Amino acid sequence: MPAWSLTAITVKPSFRKLLLNKTGQTRMKMSSLIGIQLQLLLGAALLLSSSAHGQLGPRSVSGLAPQSDIQQPLPLEQAFPFYVSAVSPGKYKVFWDLPQGHYLYRHAFDFTLSQRLDSEALAVDFSMPDGLKKTDQFFGEIEAYYEQLTIDLSLSTVPGPDARIYIHYQGCADWGFCYPPQRFEFLLNP
């Protein structure tokens, strides 16, 4: 029997008096029964739809409601994807391929080399092209990098077997979301 069946409804004694006919038997008009069934059916549908929305999340049912104008930041890996490539002993290139509307700050770049996890980090020489000069809502006058960026790294010492480069950077989205400064560890001899 479905959960919304009328046989599952218990009528309270105070309400029962309103439904008695002249012989003392309980009687309901057909229109009242249909009205109650319709209310129960609509209530169940509402509960099911809100339950599905809660389980699936707002993105899963986005086609059911108007889209919001609220921007959602991309995950860091999608906002600032990069990779490191060895060019020759002691020379590396770091490549960024940014999605539209995202940029990196020139002033936030820093590269350091550590021979072991517990050793002191040494500065790494790096060169990069000029960026786009702009006024940033967070830092004022800056140089920014959109789309693609290649940075050349030059190590002053020969890296040991446990050597790693630490890559520091920060970026934002044009619509006003600024990611916190990042520090990525790249093992040179995996």
Describe what this molecule looks like in 3D:
The protein has 190 residues and is an alpha+beta fold. The protein has two domains: 6-64, no CATH class; 76-187, Thiol:disulfide interchange protein DsbD, N-terminal domain (Immunoglobulin-like), CATH 2.60.40. The chain contains three helices and twelve strands. A four-stranded antiparallel beta sheet has the order 1-2-9-6, with no helix packed on it. The chain has a four-stranded antiparallel beta sheet with strand order 7-8-3-11, with no helix packed on it. Strands 5-4-10-12 form a four-stranded antiparallel beta sheet, with no helix packed on it. It is globular.
Give the CATH class of the largest domain.
Answer: Mainly Beta
Beta-strand content bin: 25-35%
Number of domains: 2
The count of DSSP E runs of length 2 or more, i.e. the number of strands, is 12
Strand order of the largest sheet: 1-2-9-6
Distinct helical segment count: 3
Biggest sheet descriptor: 4 strands, antiparallel
Low-pLDDT stretches are 1-12, 50-65
What structural class do helix, strand and pairing data support? Answer: alpha+beta
Q: CATH topology of the largest domain, anyone?
A: Immunoglobulin-like
The first-to-last residue Cα distance is 64 Å
N-to-C series of helices and strands: HHHEEEEEEEEEEEE
List keywords for this structure.
single chain; 190 residues; alpha+beta; Immunoglobulin-like; 2 domains; four-stranded antiparallel beta sheet; globular; disordered N terminus
